[in-house]
Write a structure and sequence with these properties.
This protein is of the alpha/beta class and 62 residues long. It has one domain: Response regulator (Rossmann fold, 3-Layer(aba) Sandwich). The chain is built from three helices and three strands. The protein is flat, with a radius of gyration of 12 Å. It starts with a helix and ends with a strand. The mean pLDDT is 89.
Amino acid sequence: MPNREYCMANKDVLIVDDDILVGESLKEMLILEGFSADAVLDGQAALAKIKEDHYQMILSDI
């Protein structure tokens, strides 16, 4: 079981959703919960973000 400090320090999330309202809403909710989150609209934008940053989790509906 990972220790709490590790879990709390690694909370980078990428949201991939073609509905801008859904993506931005999820992003805002995650930020309020203490996560670092980015939202993009499509797979190509997601691939570009993945090349730039390291994410612990990716949420996608596409």
